[in-house]
Amino acid sequence: MLSSTIQNWPTVSAALVSTLPYEELAARVGAGTGDIALGRTLFTRQGCAACHTASPEETEKGPYLGGIATRYSRAELIESIIRPAAKIAQGFATNF
Predict the structure, then answer these.
(1) CB 3.0 to 4.6 Å from 62: which of 20, 44, 51, 96, for a disulfide?
(2) 32: exposed, middle or buried (Cβ count in 10 Å: 0-12, 13-18, 19+)
(3) What is the DSSP string of 16-71?
């Protein structure tokens, strides 16, 4: 189970995550600490790397995420992960 690999995170099963109200999920995520290696894996596995650049050596695809924690609060980062379409960075809106 993924949540068991993250130190100090409240136990949340994958099936439960989709049923939690946003506020409760955000509170649970905000109470935990991160794991950089796991974060890198999830960033790729969940498809974030398809639209976001995390290294200055990469060709920019979407909003650059290097140093993101210095520009946004933890609450804003959690919202952006849980609700990725809640706020779109200026200049990166999708045009259909």
Answers:
(1) 51
(2) middle
(3) HHTTS-HHHHHHHHHTS---HHHHHHHHHHTTGGGT-B-STTSPP-SSB-TTHHHH
Buried-exposed string 46-62: b where 16+ CB fall within 10 A, e elsewhere: eebbeebbbeeeeeeeb
- Let me know: does 2 contact 14? Beta carbons within 8 Å: yes
Residue-by-residue pLDDT tens, the chain, 96 positions: 444 444 555 555 554 667 888 888 888 878 878 788 888 898 889 888 888 888 888 888 878 888 888 998 888 888 888 888 888 877 777 654
Nearest to 48 by CA among 16, 72, 82: 82
Angle between helices 22-30 and 74-82 (to 10 degrees): 130
Q: Specify the residue for token string 């809640």.
A: 86
